[in-house]
Amino acid sequence: MSEAEAAPVAPKPVPLYPDTPDMAHLHWRDPGLIGRIRLALRVLLIVLMLIVCVPLYYVWRTLRLSNPWPKLFLRGVGRACGAKVRVVGTPLKRDVFYIANHLSWLDIPVIAGRNGSAFVAQDGIKSWPVIGWLCKLNDTVFVSRTNRLGIAGQINELRDALAETWAITIFPEGTTTDGSKLLPFKSPLLQVLDPPPPGVLVQPMYLDYGADAHDIAWVGEETAPNNALRLFTRKRSFWVTLHFLEPFSPADFPGRKAIAAEARARIDAALCASLGREPAV
């Protein structure tokens, strides 16, 4: 009998999770008693902020005053989740269309907590309990990924929202990533800038969660509740840096595809520089 025949073949270890190793972090596991306490405290904090901010929101709205409460509430949500925010660059305050990369639902409280922006979101979120209602309070524009025939109406909604809120953020990748690269930008909703409303500028920006990006990102087949539970039961806080890049006039880049390409090129160059690699050609 040969040596190869004599040596038994060791069975492959059974993976802890049924998918690839880099997907293992996407599965939330029971955090134990301490994790449950963190979860309860963070949820309680957000509920208390709701109790304070929502009535004040309606008071300010009734008096037709500039309403700071959505911004303050969302900043509190980000902090309750453990996000400590740094800002690099100067965000424009009004008449601006922000274009950003996208890693997680947490991007929204992180961004809006700093610049008070409204957002564009898929219409499925509108029916989510509580979350959909809160999105409406922040003047979110809901769009359909499937109703291509309704794009004209969605563009009109975007124009109205931009006139009302002065600032809108869009995530043109259309989905989330782990922050290490940019997906192709989808340009149909940038039709609102072709031609651009008078005085409106585009300001590209990107979010950098640093070493925590892989753990914060909402990617793969992970559900929204699982992702939220992972964030709410984390042991420690984390830093996220908002990089506001140099704004440009969309009038200098005629057509939505040209605007999307310019914004993506600027974000990709800045993102690759922070990661220490060359942008893809």
Approximate strand percentage: 5-15%
Helix % is: 25-40%
Mean pLDDT: 82
Tell me the strand order in the biggest sheet.
Answer: 1-7-6-2-5-3-4
How many strands, which pairing sense, and closed or not: the largest β-sheet?
A: 7 strands, mixed
Low-pLDDT runs of 5+ residues are 1-5, 10-25
Count of runs of 4 or more consecutive helical residues: 9
User: Terminal Cα separation, in Å?
Assistant: 57 Å
Shape: globular
Taking all Cα atoms into account, the compactness measure Rg is 21 Å
Helix-strand category: alpha/beta
Please give the oligomerization state of what you see.
single chain
Number of strands: 7
Order of helices and strands: HHHEEHEHEHEEHHEH
Strands, helices and their partners?
Elements: H1 3-6, H2 32-62, H3 69-80, E1 83-88, E2 96-100, H4 107-115, E3 118-122, H5 131-137, E4 141-143, H6 151-165, E5 167-170, E6 201-208, H7 213-216, H8 224-232, E7 238-244, H9 256-275
Parallel strand pairs: 1-7, 2-5, 2-6, 3-4, 3-5
Antiparallel strand pairs: 6-7
Helix pairs in contact: 2-3, 3-4
